[in-house]
Amino acid sequence: MEAKADREIVVQKAVRGASVPSAASIRRWVGRALGEAPPGEVTVRVVDEAESAHLNERYRRGSGATDVLAFAYGDPSGVDADPHGPDADPEDPGGNSDLADEERAFGDLVICAAVVEREAARRGKPLEAHWAHIAVHGALHLLGYDHEEAEQARVMEGRERELLEAMGFGDPWADEY
């Protein structure tokens, strides 16, 4: 299943290097993960550790750089978003019903290149496969998947496995690919 034609995935590279995949690869991975989700724009920004740490601390109350941050549209604060929370409109979970389909923003992903590279090396994972995993992981967060509780993690990890296998990658949770 390819990305919807009416979804734009914009890739911004604030860092460059041999370890950063092409914009086309990032768009493909995110698009596959979003599948048949409603149309809209997703921005994927590849950043350095300083930018990742700043955003993590400011919007997620985390400490330091992290592999991926997901900011789903419809949560103006960007903090602890729950698209299926008590005030969510089941007919418009993104919270942007006043916008035409072609104007809908879906969300933003911020991926820290240095953290992804270190994680892949530490875990003995192929770099491209780990990039694909992190892109898919972030996109699933935009769809409302989470891993705070064991059952949520089981469901999210299962979906990651399905998507990555369909794209020709191994199980990201296995000891070896």
Folded structure, characterized:
There is one protein chain. With 177 residues, this protein is of the alpha/beta class. 38% of the residues lie in helices and 16% in strands. It has 5 helices and 4 strands. It has helices at residues 23-34, 49-59, 113-123, 127-142, 150-166; strands spanning 7-13, 40-47, 68-72, 105-112. The protein has a 4-stranded mixed β-sheet with strand order 1-2-4-3. Strand 1, helix 1 (23-34) and strand 2 form a beta-alpha-beta unit. The longest helix is centred in the last third of the chain and has 17 residues, at 150-166. The protein starts with 6 loop residues before the first strand and ends in an 11-residue tail after the last helix.
List strands and helices in order, with pairings.
Blueprint: E1 7-13, H1 23-34, E2 40-47, H2 49-59, E3 68-72, E4 105-112, H3 113-123, H4 127-142, H5 150-166
Parallel strand pairs: 1-2, 2-4
Antiparallel strand pairs: 3-4
Shape: globular
Largest sheet, order of strands side by side? 1-2-4-3
Distance between the termini: 23 Å
Mean pLDDT: 83
- Main β sheet profile: 4 strands, mixed
Q: Which strand-content bin applies to the residues? A: 15-25%
